[in-house]
Amino acid sequence: xxxxxRVVDADEAWRRLRGVRSAADAGxxxxxxxxxxxxxxxxxTPEADxxxxxxxxxxxxxxxxxxxxxxxxxxxxxxxxxxxxDYVTGEEDRTHLHRMRALADAVVVGAGTAVADDPRxxxxxxxxxxxxxVVLDPHGRVPxxxxxxxDGAAPTLWVVGAGGRHERAVADRDGVDVLTLxxxxxxxxxxxxxxxxxxxxGRVLVEGGGVTVSRFLHEGALHRLYVTVxxxxxxxxxxxxxxxxxxxxxxxxxxxxxRVLLGEDTLFEFDLRAPGPGEPVGQEHARAGQxxxxxx
Length: 296
Hints:
Helix content is about 25%, strand content about 25%. It has helices at about 10-15, 25-30, 45-60, 90-100, 110-115, 145-150, 165-170, 190-200, 210-220; strands at about 30-35, 40, 65-75, 75-80, 105-110, 130-135, 155-160, 175-180, 205-210, 225-230, 240, 255-260, 265-270.
């Protein structure tokens, strides 16, 4: 006589999802496709099934994936005019962000975000391994006393340009590596993704700020984009996404989108690998990366 099957709750679902990288892994973890096309746990709670809905596409996306996350006000700002971003979105969105860090090999931020926020970029709101923290800093602006260089909580890769400042100040610190790129062109998103892949960092989360995420989006380097919108109005401030757009509304980027509520916030997930009208299946969306110079 056998006992009742173990029910998969949200904590157990997240533990199992972190180990899923293939359809075979998903089946072994207890995930089964339903008649409605939704993948569910064989014996799961509704909260566990929600986690599978939200993160299974990321888990199954392969070893090389570039995705981004922004949290912003409903009028499109990620911080106030003074740079205060604590916090635009709510607690559920912060947990979501930390889960995405746990599913990445590397988390990328630009120098402006690193200078202004002094972020830790570690996984704290959920169980999971810390990604490598990648700071894009062509001019060596980020102070060597910032936490990504001093706290030892996770490995850090400081990506600087030739002739930048401070590299020697961190070069001998445990867990900190410096990658010097020869020129500005080497900082183009696709070049950066390839450079990270050569270091074994194939699953890349671009976390901030708005300028960096916009560059990756505009230059066609993102496979998925997550934007969480909070029901708050700032009026002005630090913008989120901003890049040269089309002249006609019909030419706007309209990728397949999923929406989910995170408390009072709304999370939008954009699949940027899906083809647009008239584009061949299996190709990345070209319109997001038309070469018209860098965004901002």
